[in-house]
Here is the input.
Amino acid sequence: MNSTFSAELGVSHHIPILLEPITDFLVTGLKNLPPEAAPGIILDCTLGGGGHTARILEKMKSDTSLLKHCVLGVDQDPDAIARNRIKFKNEIDAKNLEIIHSSFSDAPKHINGRPIYGLMADLGISSDQIDSETRGFSFRFPAPLDMRMDTSRGIPLKEMLMVLSETEIADMIWKYGEDRFSRKIARKLVDLRSKNQLPENTSLLADAIASTFPPAMRHKRMHPATQSFQAFRIAVNEELKELETLISKVFPLVQVGGNIAILSFHSLEDRLVKSEFHQRELYDLPSRKAIQADDQEIEMNSRSRSAKLRLAIKK
Here is the structure.
């Protein structure tokens, strides 16, 4: 099902990861507030399929005293915004939820002075984006070379590959994808570009990348293009820069005693979050180790395998 069709129906196929640990932690933070606490928000920085927000709202409705607060859901993907405005129409009408099309680094513009009692971010790509035949996140379909999470701005992958040097492409693949064949891949892509043969879609791009691998490595469990595609997505969307801005500009706005839950899928992201949370003068940690999906969840949703959840309480 393509993303436009999903948006029209208000349907998401994304399965939220570590749903209960995240939502329990955030709603418990609201319950621990003193009765006189001013109305505030839980900020869902990556609304995505809306699974975490839906569960937060369910738990808030089970204790009506919590409904003086609301959830502010932010996402930079226009399709996700369209789907969720349909999915959550009743909650929006009841003022329990606000939905904003924005990058999470711009979230402060929409807080309007309200206290933030909880913050969550799911830094992974959603199943809706991966499964779209038009967005370019997957090489299962011959999709356009785009990969922008926010299709209203930014530079598509095709344009990026047209202008970057061989060294820049190689460095990008190594830094964000940690692929040891990054130099060979970059050389291949630049060579194709010089012949006006740069692949026109994701399937052809994946084939070109795979051709740089030794024959014995082209048919293993993980496709040879997987790490490069991860690198391209991180670069196109400036994901690490966005996370750094979230940490430096939005984390400080969380109220003392407020709960923060960050779900990451890449070692570079997790390293940034871990480094921030381990500042003892700023945060208390329910657990110093990252929480990971158990075997049952991984069996139900293989995409949860690489997820790491870190929790912190603002001092």
Notes: The longest strand covers residues 254-264. DSSP finds 14 helices and seven strands in the chain. The chain has two domains: 3-128+240-314, 151-236. Residues 1-9 have pLDDT under 50 and may be disordered.
